[in-house]
Amino acid sequence: MEMKSLALLVFTLLSVNLVCSAVPLASRSHLNVGYIYPGDRLLYRQYLQKLALPNAIQYQDFIYQGNRSTRISAVTATEIGYTQYASAWIIRGGVGYNNVTVRVQTYRGYGYYYVIDVWGR
Ligand SMILES: *[C@@H]1O[C@H](CO)[C@@H](O)[C@H](O)[C@H]1NC(C)=O
Ligand SMILES: *[C@@H]1O[C@H](CO)[C@@H](O)[C@H](O)[C@H]1NC(C)=O
Q1: What are the Cα distances from residue 119, in Å, to 39, 40, 50, 95?
Q2: Which residue has the higher pLDDT, 82 or 7?
Q3: What is the atom index within ligand 2 of the atom nearest the CA of 99?
Q4: Which side of the chain, N or C, has fewer Cβ within a 10 Å radius?
C-alpha cells in the first residue's frame, strides 16, 4: 500500500469482553457483501483473533475509514481454519460508502480467527 493512502487511513479496533450479551447468535460465520469490479483494489486487510474464554461472548469492532473519494465496493470477513461458530456483520457504512465498521463476535465460550478484506477504489 502506498504511504500516501496509509497516512490517510484511520484505523481503530475496539475490544470488548462480555460475559452476558443479548446479541442474537444466528449462524453467519462469513460476511461477503458487494462485488469486486475491474480497477478495484484491496484497500485494507486485517486479521483478527480472539482466544476462547469460558462462558464468554467476546466481540471487536473493525473500522476502516477511507478518504473523501474512497468508494468501498466489497467487504468480506472469512473465518480462517476450522469454524468456531463466530459471527461477522456490518454495523455502519459499507458498500458505496468511504467507511465500514464490521463487528466480529464469538460464539459463547469460543474464539475466532478472521481475515477482513475491504475492496474498492
Ligand atoms: C483516497 O483513497 C483511495 C483509495 O480508496 C486512493 O486510491 C487515493 O489515492 C486516495 N486519495 C488521496 C488524495 O490520497
Ligand atoms: C461513514 O458512513 C456513514 C454511512 O453509514 C456516513 O453516514 C458517514 O458520514 C461516513 N463517515 C465519514 C467520516 O465519512
Answers
A1: 10, 6, 24, 9
A2: 82
A3: 1
A4: N
- The Cα–Cα gap between 72 and 74 comes to 6
3-state secondary structure of 48: strand
Q: Burial code of 73-101, b = ≥16 C-beta within 10 A, e = fewer? A: bbbbbebeeeebebbbebeebbbebbebb
pLDDT for 76-89, tens place per residue? 999 999 899 999 99
Q: Choose among 93, 7, 17: nearest CA to 52.
A: 17
pLDDT digit string, tens, across residues 36-67? 999 999 999 999 999 999 999 999 999 999 99
Amino acid identity of 84? Answer: Q
Q: Whose CA is nearest to atom 4 of ligand 2?
A: 93
Residues 6 or more apart whose Cβ sits within 8 Å of residue 76: 30, 31, 32, 33, 116, 117, 119
